[in-house]
Specification:
heterodimer, A: 97 residues, alpha+beta, three-stranded antiparallel β-sheet, 3 helices, 38% helix, 19% strand, B: 372 residues, alpha/beta, nine-stranded mixed β-sheet, 9 strands, disordered C terminus
Chain lengths: 97, 372
């Protein structure tokens, strides 16, 4: 079997974009976009900010810490949103470990 | 009407030539011959115009795009223009040499069609012996090359009972994504509707199978699946709405809002030789014709879903009612919804033989003349 197991997004996980997912700025639309196999995402401002912190080095906890620092918001509130969004993108195979 | 956004994707139908003869082929009944196809330079110009217009993804399709000897050159050109390239293929003639060239040219993804999980049944539906084994080999090559793989399975009365096996096959082949696509009934498929339309019982079982598999395979295999129009209450936003997101370029260079739009009468679709893509997208009468909500009749016009489904599918409305402006009969509110209800009865009768896709007799003769 070539089936892989599902990756669960935890605080210690270091995520990166899958090799065939492209996160780039589109000059025509003047907006950030994510291109993936037969999938096109137009992330909103908050999602763009999170995705810009996905660099293949920072763990999920580090991403949350950075956003807490920027927004001076309660950690639990930010952590919930971030983990939910990242798990969704992992399940869609846009991000991987 | 709000401003028109640039298109997101282009379906580049490079050719109508194909080794398969599927009886639900989305190509038109009158297929283009090789001699009518756009040349390499024209396709390169079109790809460049698409990127400049704001297109982000290009789906190289057909027929069988591998039948074009310049496919690698076109993929490379698309990559250099910044387009995300996807190959939609039967996989029949895919070998490792060709695939490596395509990967090197920047291809990002392959969508491979399967007609069934059962080999004999799949070969019969595709109209080609040995086709299903060839597809399995192609799937392995794609995974070995490190490309993401989508398995596309068109489902209907004659394979829907094996959906669980189809899902298992996709997972075992290492697919990242499975697209379970119900047949859409216009063109070849409408001719074969009585042989293809599933029963309500088959459909309900299939829907339950998908729900179960989605839970079991979350994060492993993404399954795309929607309930087919003939058993739905509301129409789908065909192509995300006419002239809103997609454009299609036919082998001969006609630019369409969807691959079946040429079936509609009274619309003059420009070719890439006559105008630039940007002009066609923003200014042609054909793209304006069913764009937005102004053209809609009641009950669409005052419906609170008019900007959700954009009136459904014009080609289906025309194929079933003879009037492209009618409300899509897929909608339970449509005056013609009864046409779909009646058609469902066919699913309970014995299935007639397939009418396989083929070039018309006239074009066969013309091809023979060209060869002799």
């Amino acid at each position: 079997m070539t089936e892989e197991a599902r990756v669960s997004v935890e605080g210690g996980a270091v995520l990166r974009f899958a090799p065939h997912a492209k996160f780039r700025f589109d000059e025509v639309r003047q907006a950030w976009i994510v291109l993936a196999p037969e999938r096109l995402l137009l992330p909103d401002e908050q999602a763009v900010e999170i995705l810009q912190l996905i660099d293949g080095e920072r763990a999920v906890d580090g991403v949350i810490d950075e956003l807490v620092r920027r927004y001076e918001a309660p950690r639990e509130m930010i952590a919930g949103d971030v983990v939910k969004m990242l798990q969704d993108l992992v399940d869609k195979k846009v991000l991987r470990r | 009407m709000s401003a028109v956004d640039p298109p997101l994707a282009v379906l580049a139908e490079l050719t109508h030539r194909c080794p398969l003869r599927c009886p639900y082929c989305s190509n038109p009944l009158e297929l283009s011959r090789a001699s009518a196809e756009l040349d390499t330079a024209s396709w390169k110009r079109v790809l460049g115009e698409a990127a400049a217009l704001g297109v982000l993804q290009v789906h190289f399709s057909g027929g069988e795009p591998l039948a074009r000897r310049d496919l690698t050159e076109l993929v490379r050109h698309a990559t250099e223009a910044g387009l995300y390239g996807n190959l939609i293929t039967s996989g029949i003639h895919l070998d490792s040499g060709r695939l490596n060239e395509l990967v090197e040219a920047g291809l990002e993804h392959v969508q491979l069609s399967f007609q069934d999980a059962d080999i004999a049944s799949g070969d019969r539906i595709a109209g080609l012996a040995g086709s299903q084994e060839a597809k399995r080999r192609a799937a392995r090559l794609v995974r070995e090359a490190g490309l993401p793989l989508t398995v596309n399975a068109v489902v209907h009365r004659q394979n829907l009972d094996r959906l669980d096996e189809i899902i298992g096959m996709a997972a075992a082949l290492g697919a990242d994504r499975l697209e379970v696509a119900h047949v859409q009934y216009y063109g070849w498929a409408l001719r074969n509707r009585a042989a293809l339309l599933p029963t309500r019982g088959q459909l309900d079982a299939a829907t339950a199978t998908v729900e179960d598999a989605r839970a079991r395979l979350a994060g492993v295999l993404v399954i795309d699946y929607v309930v087919p129009d003939y058993y739905a209450h509301r129409p789908k936003a065909c192509m995300g709405g006419w002239g809103r997101r997609f454009l299609n370029v036919t082998p001969a260079g006609k630019v369409l809002p969807c691959h079946a739009a040429e079936t509609l009468p009274g619309l003059d679709f420009p070719t890439v030789a006559e105008a630039g893509l940007s002009d066609i997208w923003y200014r042609s009468a054909a793209f304006e014709r069913f764009r937005g909500t102004e053209w809609m009749p009641e009950p669409c016009r005052s419906c609170d879903r008019r900007e959700i489904d954009w009136g459904g599918c014009r080609c289906q409305a025309y194929a079933l009612t003879g009037d492209a402006e009618r409300t899509d009969p897929a909608c339970a509110l449509a005056p013609d919804h009864g046409l779909l209800v009646e058609a469902r009865q066919d699913a309970n009768e014995a299935a007639p033989d397939f009418i396989y896709r083929q070039h018309s007799a006239a074009s066969h003769r013309r091809s023979a003349e060209l060869i002799s």
